[in-house]
Design brief:
The chain is of the alpha+beta class. The chain has 2 domains: 1-184, no CATH class; 185-219 and 247-255 and 262-547, Deoxyribonuclease I, Chain A, CATH 3.60.10. 14% of the residues lie in helices and 35% in strands. It has 7 helices and 31 strands. The protein has helices spanning 57-73, 189-200, 281-298, 323-328, 411-425, 445-450, 467-471, and strands at 2-4, 7-13, 25-27, 30-31, 39-41, 44-45, 47-48, 94-104, 114-121, 124-131, 133-143, 151-160, 163-176, 179-183, 203-205, 228-229, 235-237, 240-241, 245-247, 264-270, 303-312, 335-343, 352-360, 364-371, 386-394, 398-406, 432-437, 465-466, 507-512, 517-525, 540-547. A hairpin with a 2-residue loop joins β13 and β14 (179-183). The radius of gyration is 24 Å and the shape is globular.
Length: 555
């Protein structure tokens, strides 16, 4: 409640009942079902604004912000006036396919939640009813069709409280000016350059540089600043500067097989959202984010899948609310997609969302996701869950399909969700990797289903393998009587790093591989720390994939 001259305003959220379950699919962020009838994700309706045009004022401002972001983070991939990468000013792009999603909060999965403004004016009590809108998310593509062999940059930018934040920045090269859906083949010069850089560069971000203020992660919505080349050949975008970087020595976070320079390296990590120590929580999170960011950089993975990634308006301290950027800061030149799964009900006067993300050294060509089964009457199934899919063009294996999820705590929801995920995976042919925090141990029906051992609803998986079991035996969970007090626990347990010993395996990597691709190794991505000094309450997984003998790597 607050006072504004003669008005007394009281905000009252309208309760509309429990959240309904949903199961909509989106392709490249575009809904494949009636937008007015389904959720975009948990707590948010598919309220896309009709008739959005490239010359709309807000679209122009968001595009300017996106260009500014691209020229700061990947200036060599944005066309300039003049010849060469070090030419003049950055060229203005064309804006393609702009869309705008108003974040209409819902409590029943069907109708927008409302709030009432109750105020007094000139002695009279007045009431106004409004829809709760938590922000706006913009989808757009920047293109330079007149520039030969230029890249297109795709962005998802969300606005909250007058600031803009990047949820997605991906880019790839198109085959021609008239076909923006076709990426150049794996042997293209761009992908070769990416591969050469991946093999030769060990640059990571300095830990101490991740203390940027909120203005470093966003700009005011009304910003009209333009990026230009300075006399010192240093890129500056408004008040933003390129973060300091330093070459660091790789740390032995991988427990086995330190020689993983060949092949495609894929990692998965539950980042434990904004949690920190019991006291000084924001400060503790900032320190943990710095540590975890360095762990992710040092593992040198080509592709990283993250779970429990959040946007939280009241968390993050000096790092800002957009958690995905806390980690991409340590991975310069990587593309990324963050997809919220749930907007939390307590955030109707702010904004708190959690989801999953994919970060890639190589081009993310397309991405989509499904909403997984949810029973809101089940106390262990409060959060909406999703499965995010990305198609990534790699120089090693060609097109690879990545699936990342974070399953419910509810066993019935897990069982239904894994069937949904398997059916989702079946839509795409070729190499596929499913990974994430599945919140259930080996022996459960959901895991046995994914392993191809047990049917659910007369559905059974085929050619999907548990990557850990392809290389190592099942680790024994840390239950009473299993281990002596200080006995070394079996390798493969992934949770709980907050305790002195890991207790169980609930993080997984499942693979579907063609005959000419093999899993070279899988390892724990573990910093060796326990308690609140650990990078997360989970440890991560790292899988390395190579060609089988006889495969022509130059083809």
């Amino acid at each position: 409640m607050f006072r504004d001259e003669n008005m007394l305003i009281l905000l009252v959220a309208t309760a509309l009942g429990p959240m309904a379950s949903a199961g909509a699919t989106k392709i490249d962020g575009k809904p494949t079902v009636d937008e007015a009838q389904v959720l975009a994700y948990g707590g948010i309706l598919n309220s896309f604004v009709p008739g959005v045009l490239p010359n709309d004022t807000d679209i122009q401002q968001v595009a300017q912000f996106a260009l500014q972001y691209a020229t700061e983070h990947v200036p060599h991939l944005v066309p300039r006036a003049g010849e060469g990468a070090e030419g003049g000013d950055f060229l203005k792009p064309e804006i393609l396919q702009p869309r705008k999603l108003k974040l209409h909060f819902t409590q029943n999965g069907q109708n927008p939640a409302l709030y009432e403004l109750v105020y007094e004016q000139n002695g009279e009590k007045l009431t106004e009813t409004h829809i709760i809108i938590l922000g706006i998310t913009y989808f757009l593509t920047l293109s330079w069709p007149s520039i030969a062999n230029s890249l297109v940059h795709r962005f998802v930018v969300t606005m909250f409280s007058g600031h803009l934040y990047v949820f997605e920045h991906t880019w790839f090269q198109v085959a021609s000016q008239t076909d923006e859906g076709t990426v150049l083949p794996c042997a293209s010069k761009y992908l070769q350059d990416v591969q050469e850089d991946a093999m030769s560069s060990t640059r990571t971000q300095n830990v101490e540089s991740l203390t940027l203020g909120d203005n470093k992660h966003s700009v005011q919505y009304s910003s009209s600043q333009v990026c230009q080349q300075t006399s010192q050949e240093k890129q500056e975008c408004g008040s933003q500067e390129k973060a300091k970087s330093a070459t660091t020595t790789k740390k032995p976070y991988l427990q086995t097989d330190n020689d993983l320079s060949a092949g495609l390296k894929i990692a998965s990590y539950n980042v434990w959202n904004f949690n920190g120590g019991p006291e000084g929580r924001v400060k503790a999170y900032v320190e943990r984010a710095q540590h975890l960011g360095q762990v992710l950089a040092d593992c040198a993975a080509d592709i990283i899948a993250l779970q429990e990634v959040r946007f939280a308006y009241n968390r993050g301290g000096p790092l800002g609310p957009n958690q995905i950027q806390h980690f991409t800061h340590y991975l310069p030149g990587y593309q990324y997609v963050f997809q919220p799964a749930m907007s939390y009900p307590e955030s109707i006067l702010g904004r708190v969302e959690e989801g999953v993300a994919i970060i890639s050294k190589f081009p993310i060509i397309t991405h989509d996701y499904i909403l997984l089964y949810r029973n809101a009457s089940d106390s262990e199934d409060f959060h909406q869950r999703i499965c995010l899919h990305a198609e990534i063009e790699t120089p090693y294996l060609g097109l690879v399909h990545l699936f990342v999820t974070h399953l419910s705590l509810s066993e019935p929801a897990q069982d239904k969700s894994v069937v949904q995920i398997w059916e989702f995976m079946q839509r795409f042919s070729g190499p596929a990797v499913l990974m994430g925090d599945l919140n259930t141990e080996p022996g459960s029906k959901a895991i046995r289903f994914l392993q191809g051992v047990e049917e659910i609803d007369r559905v059974k998986t085929e050619e999907l393998q548990d990557a850990w079991l392809m290389k190592y035996p099942e680790p024994r969970a840390d239950r009473d009587g299993t281990y002596w007090r200080n006995e070394i626990r079996d390798s493969g347990l992934t949770f709980n790093a907050l305790k002195s010993h890991l207790e169980k395996r609930i993080d997984y990597m499942f693979v579907r591989l063609p005959s000419d691709v093999r899993l070279h190794n899988i390892s724990l991505l573990d910093d060796g720390k326990r308690g609140y000094a650990a990078a997360s309450d989970h440890v991560g997984l790292m899988g390395t994939f190579t060609f089988s003998q006889g495969k022509d790597q130059g083809s």
